[in-house]
Amino acid sequence: MRGDLDRTLATALIALTLIAGWIAARTTGLLTSDSKIVIYVMANLILTFDVIDLLGRMWARRINGSQFQGPSIDLCLPEISQTEIALTMAPYAIVASVHDAADDIDRFIAAMQPFKDRMWLIDDGSRDDTLRRLRLLGWNCIDGGINRKKPGALMHLLRLLPAEIETVLVLDPDVKLVADPGSARPLMDRVICDLQRSGAAALTPRFVVYRHGWLEECQALEYELCCGLGRRSLGDICTNSGVSIYRRSALQSVLSRHTLSVYAEDFENSLLLLSAGERVYYDDRLVFSTEPKRTWVALFSQRVGWAFGWGRLFVERLPLLLRIARRGPLATYQYLIYLGFNGIVMLPMKLLSAAILAASLLKGVDDLLGTQLMPDRDWNQPILFALSYVKTSVVLCIACAVALPRADRLRHAAILPFYCMYSILQFIPITVGFLNVATMRLFGRRLYADHYDNNPQVFLGGAR
């Protein structure tokens, strides 16, 4: 959707959907008592937060002047030719930390072949033959000696880069640049040149996941909404991802103050940059594909780790979050209200909302099968789930129309009926991740050990 008319239409459709749901609830007798009204409100709590967030981000995209293609904020830069880019652009390097990557290294080097002369790799204490294979194939790979994990390995690598390199693209080995081989290099040069001319500290690109199955498609839509709606709405106070382009001096300064934890290390980069007054924006001219999690167990472990990092930074870096919030209303909303209040403080209420919806769904299945295993209660009426599901699906369709480029909308249409169930299930690993932070602080151990680090730590004040 583009233009004022489209935004107005989207807002009107959301309002009509909510009003229609309220009318349907009254017609079916759901709102005949105060207790039933409270249950109805609780059942729609998750949707309420999602609607407020969607409307707020639509407003922010309009304020930032963000379009579907390009930076999330107007950089106010004049157009220059490819020849001018080649003459004016400062040297850049593409850096990555690799660890025990021998089984997948062929795919990575094939994808990055057009940039081989720009690549600087560091072997982060691999126990296999990753380092030997890379060197035999002629790739510039430094022996890190010990396993420092990604932030520590990158900090070590940055010290070894030639002094003239001013910009670095940080990669994860499991990603691939989505571009024609002939246009990949000119595209990368243009995006990096724009970052250098803008004076911003960093940019984060768009991520896509290619289809494999139902679980992977849900992750694909999740990434699209996160990029096209979440990051694009933030202008120049964006959050970095695992693949980001940094001004070298800014990244070196950040890593010198970093906890060097692998948990939410990119989010910590963003907090350190933004709290220092730096700018970070989103630019979807660069598109990277990433491998999704193929099983529920792998996805659960990943999301527990993400939530642990999220909660850990609120414990360790709260002063930075408060400093960022002073940059303006949008920063306050994103980093305190959305991530803090909505994401952490209100999680118990969202779990209660999810429990009511689950009970309503089970009661509906019970009635459909005629088993009569569940007694009728105000909090498990099947209409609660039915109304919430319909309204959520409509709002999700509107969010996709706002966030996704027109060419990509049809691809995700088939997964829309299932996505709301997928998103509700994410509350389970998020809860476990937050509980891991609490148990680490209280007892020195986690409820569930994810795959990121065998010995995580939680500090106060960001001290190592």
Overall description:
With 464 residues, this protein is an alpha/beta fold. It has 2 domains: 3-64 and 346-425, no CATH class; 82-292, Spore Coat Polysaccharide Biosynthesis Protein SpsA, Chain A (Alpha-Beta Complex), CATH 3.90.550.10. Helix content is 58%, strand content 10%. The chain has helices at 3-27, 34-43, 45-64, 82-88, 105-111, 130-136, 149-160, 181-198, 214-231, 248-256, 265-275, 296-316, 318-325, 329-345, 347-369, 382-403, 406-413, 416-425, 427-443; strands at residues 92-98, 119-123, 141-143, 167-171, 175-177, 202-208, 244-247, 280-290. It has an 8-stranded mixed sheet, with helices on both faces. It is globular and about 70 Å long. Mean pLDDT is 90; it is low at 1-5.
Question: What is the name of the CATH topology of the largest domain?
Answer: Spore Coat Polysaccharide Biosynthesis Protein SpsA, Chain A
Low-confidence stretches: 1-5
Q: Major β-sheet, in short?
A: 8 strands, mixed
In CATH terms, what is the architecture of the largest domain?
A: Alpha-Beta Complex
The helix count comes to 19
Q: How many DSSP-defined strands?
A: 8
CATH superfamily of the largest domain: Spore Coat Polysaccharide Biosynthesis Protein SpsA, Chain A
Structural class: alpha/beta
Overall tally of structural domains: 2
Mean pLDDT figure: 90
The best one-word shape is globular
Strand content: 5-15%
Order of helices and strands: HHHHEHEHEHEEHEHEHHEHHHHHHHH
* CATH class call of the largest domain: Alpha Beta
- Level of helix content? 55-70%
| Distance N to C terminus | 46 Å
* Strand order in the sheet with the most strands: 3-2-1-4-7-6-8-5
Radius of gyration: 24 Å
